[in-house]
Structures are given as structure tokens and as C-alpha cells.
Design goal:
The chain is α+β, with helices and mostly antiparallel strands. 43% of the residues lie in helices and 30% in strands. It is built from three helices and nine strands. The strands form two sheets. Strands 2, 4, 5, 7, 8 and 9 form a six-stranded mixed sheet that branches. Strands 1-3-6 form a three-stranded antiparallel sheet, with no helix packed on it. Strand 7 and strand 8 form a beta hairpin.
């Protein structure tokens, strides 16, 4: 009896040890983030490595389950590793379809384990300009983004400089005109006083 129990325990340990190595290669990958216009069709993928007898693939939108696929492969071998995929197709997309779509693979046989993808963000826009701007902001390697910034700066900076020069020139002219008016008023006053003094003391000067 002890020999039988020892044999069963040894076999269990070997099975667990073998599965732990296989589970180390159990990886789930998903499509990159997607930007689409309203009314278009989007297709995202979820792929995993390994070969399992029985497992389920769940699609979650913002952590809420929206689809579940069941797979049963009795003749699957743990020693053979291959890559399989599940596809999520959304046609005639609407802005409310925007969100984070996560793929989760749950293995039931030979041993219960699961893995998740990093998630695919779908953004639906109904305006072409917003859609293009969203694409540019998503792709850091897009050469049009820095080019647009440089062009904008090349146009805005000279305009600001011209505006500043015009403002300073106008202020300077206004200051000069004000000084000339003061000098003219003082000159008129001095002339009036001089005439009053020369003509007569009885003359009322204004």
C-alpha cells in the first residue's frame, strides 16, 4: 500500500513539474491599439502559445465579459507547442464601441491556469480630423507630427514678432505726438504772456 501511494505521489509530482515548465511558455498576445471611423469594421486578434486539451477564451470589454469560446481537444499533447488565435470582429462600429478589449485564456485540462493579454484599445471617431489627430498622437514614429509642429512654429513666431514690433512702434509714435502737443501748448502760453506784457498791463490775458 505504501509503495502504491509513493508511486502515485511521484507521478503527481512529475506531472506538476512538467506542467510548470509548459505554463512558463503560455503567453497571450493581442493586436495593437486601433483607431477607426464610425461605421467601419474592426478586427482584433488574440493569440496564445501552447496546446491544451480543454480551455476557454474570454473577450472582455472594460473588464465585462462580452464573448466566450469553448475548445475541447482530447488528443492534444502538452509536449507539442503551437500558436492559436481567436478573432473578435465588430462591424458598423459606433462611438459606444470604444473601450479596452482584453482576451483571457483559461485552461481547464490538464491543469487549471489562465493568462491575459495586455488589452487592445479601440477608439471610434465620427470626425475625420479627430481621427487623423488621434492616429498621429498614437504613433510616436509618425513623421508628420513633428513636421506639423515645426511648420506651426515657423508661422506663428514671425507673426508674433511682427505684432510686437508694430505695437512698440505705435507706442513710440504716440509718445512723440504727446510730447509735441505739450511743447506746442507751452509755446502758445508763453507767446500769450509775452503779448500781454508788451501791449498793456490792462489787457486781459487768456
Amino acid at each position: 500500500m505504501k509503495i502504491l501511494l509513493s508511486s502515485l505521489l511521484f507521478a503527481s509530482l512529475c506531472t506538476l513539474s512538467s506542467w510548470s515548465v509548459s505554463s512558463g511558455t503560455f503567453v497571450v498576445t493581442q493586436s495593437d491599439h486601433v483607431f477607426v471611423r464610425e461605421g467601419e469594421t474592426v478586427n482584433i486578434t488574440c493569440c496564445w502559445t501552447g496546446k491544451f486539451e480543454r480551455f476557454r477564451v474570454y473577450w472582455l470589454k472594460n473588464q465585462t465579459e462580452i464573448r466566450s469560446d469553448y475548445f475541447n481537444q482530447p488528443n492534444a499533447s502538452l509536449k507539442k507547442e503551437e500558436k492559436k488565435c481567436s478573432f473578435l470582429n465588430i462591424s458598423n462600429v459606433r462611438p459606444e464601441d470604444s473601450g479596452t478589449y482584453t482576451c483571457k485564456v483559461t485552461v481547464e485540462i490538464p491543469s487549471l491556469t489562465e493568462a491575459k493579454g495586455n488589452g487592445t484599445v479601440i477608439t471610434v471617431n465620427d470626425t475625420g480630423n479627430n481621427w487623423q489627430g488621434a492616429q498621429d498622437s498614437l504613433d510616436p514614429g509618425n513623421p508628420t507630427k513633428p513636421t506639423n509642429v515645426i511648420i506651426s512654429l515657423a508661422v506663428v513666431v514671425p507673426l508674433l514678432l511682427v505684432t510686437l514690433v508694430c505695437y512698440c512702434t505705435l507706442r513710440r509714435k504716440q509718445g512723440t505726438n504727446f510730447k509735441l502737443i505739450l511743447k506746442h501748448q507751452r509755446l502758445n502760453k508763453n507767446i500769450s504772456l509775452l503779448l500781454c506784457f508788451c501791449l498793456s498791463k490792462k489787457t486781459r490775458c487768456i
